[in-house]
Write a structure and sequence with these properties.
The protein has 211 residues and is mainly alpha-helical. The protein has 7 helices and no strands.
Amino acid sequence: MTDTPERCTCGAVLAENARFCHRCGRPVYELTAAEQEELSPTPPPAAPAIVIPPEPLPIGFANPIAMRVALLMSAGIMMMEMLPFLNYLFFAWWLLAGWGGVRLYRRLTGLRLSVASGARLGFITGLFAFVTKAVFFSITMASSTGRELLDQMVKQDPRTAEVVNNPSMLGAVLIMMLVMIFVMVVGVCAAGGALGAKLGAPASSRTEPRT
């Protein structure tokens, strides 16, 4: 132990074995490294980082999960409509596709969709289903099968010959048919999505962002 001087340079009388002057705070003698480490204040522990979850994307074409769900549901519609006898229940498959898409999206993300978001997801599902239908319809009408169907229509109702033999009128009729199919498929799928969001039990307290 280093001998402690009797007085500090400021004139104060030092206590025995004092390290610092009680008046001016000056060190009485040079501290060792161990003593300096002992006297240095311990820094407080770092505060844990707060992890903020990313804001979920709204339902739309920029949402990759919504797009995958819509594609899967639209593929399911096409598969059911290709099966014998079950294809007559097309209205039910459209409705169930919209409802099932909301349920699947909720299971994948844990988000509770609003009625409007459920309808948007159903709309996207119906849009994909319609595009697939339109492609198949166009291919069928351009093939020999389509011509056979038109010939059968003429045989059943000779009055349709005027439309079938007129490319402009036939094109207008086909476009009207596609518009009607679009409205029906997209509308029913959107209704199914809205019902799925309204009637389904929420999987968590999180909700998708409002747009």
